[in-house]
Amino acid sequence: xxxxxxxxxxxxxxxxxxxxxxxxxxxxxxxxxxxxxxxxxxxxxxxxxxxxxxxxxxxxxxxxxxxxxxxxxxxxxxxxxxxxxxxxxxxxxxxxxxxxxxxxxxxxxxxxxxxxxxxxxxxxxxxxxxxxxxxxxxxxxxxxxxxxxxxxxxxxxxxxxxxxxxxxxxxxxxxxxxxxxxxxxxxxxxxxxxxxxxxxxxxxxxxxxxxxxxxxxxxxxxxxxxxxxxxxxxxxxxxxxxxxxxxxxxxxxxxxxxxxxxxxxxxxxxxxxxxxxxxxxxxxxxxxxxxxxxxxxxxxxxxxxxxxxxxxxxxxxxxxxxxxxxxxxxxxxxxxxxxxxxxxxxxxxxxx
Length: 352
Ligand code: NAD
Description:
Blueprint: E1 5-10, H1 14-24, E2 29-35, H2 46-49, E3 60-61, H3 64-68, E4 75-78, H4 84-96, E5 100-103, H5 116-129, E6 132-135, H6 146-152, E7 157-168, H7 174-179, H8 186-195, H9 204-215, E8 221-230, E9 235-236, E10 241-242, E11 247-258, E12 261-271, E13 282-290, E14 293-297, H10 303-313, H11 315-320, E15 324-326, H12 341-348
């Protein structure tokens, strides 16, 4: 193992940029490549794209092969899209060039839920090339799955899990505003749901699969409900404007059943400027079991910072894991990386 872990950041939007900035603060890690298809970013020094006042000596390229074929890195941090079909070509190119992959694509938190054959193919390819592929993030990846699983570790038995993440969407960009229906009329919201352009949260089925898999529950049915959060007041962000009577976001609920009983209930009201109607953000986990466990985090763990941190913090776990496609519940618990990452990978701490 060299003295630094080489990381290629693929996708330099809000999240990929945040990931790159977290990486720059870590000891024993080096950004060896930066990939983005946006012509406004390609050819620029990564420092410029990140809005830093210094150059980093890494040029942003739109040609992944030029970076990956150099083979200078150990891991690709992938932040381009939410969907398995869209990130699969990027994962395949990384893996076949010998790179481990950590992606924040929501569907990759447990890709087998929607793409069982492709998940098997990914696993086989990763094993063939001796690398590990992980999907993670704040949600799915942490708040509504990994954290819940960790809390049940103190339970002798669990009857039901109810978890709520009340969050603020104000910092997010146009894609999220559109998929959450922010600024749509109730009629447009209903049409968007029917057409699939408004989807609410993308990760519920993955979080349910992670929890059920870790606890050994055989889920037989998952129900989902989505409804607009109608604003009583005017709200405005950089990418959305909401008049009274329009949707400020989407309240999305998922219920998973075992033997006809609802055992997992995940509730996720997401909206812009919740404080304008006195709504405080927070993450709440209620476990009915032996013992009952109640956890409240106020305000919410911020989605942007949290996503970048979880993705980076999983680097030693992924580099020390057995090759293949893995999920968060396959690896040891995430923790902040406060030491030399290369040394942690080399064996300074028991991980993976
Ligand atoms: P964004 O739109 O701001 O950035 C995406 C970036 O990827 C852009 O710069 C774009 O040019 C680039 N890109 C897209 N396709 C590419 C390709 N084929 N090749 C090279 N570059 C490409 O999005 P974001 O806010 O940074 O989020 C990225 C993804 O992560 C989104 O799909 C988002 O839903 C997801 N996400 C997941 C979590 C989680 O908790 N798991 C949290 C936040 C975001």
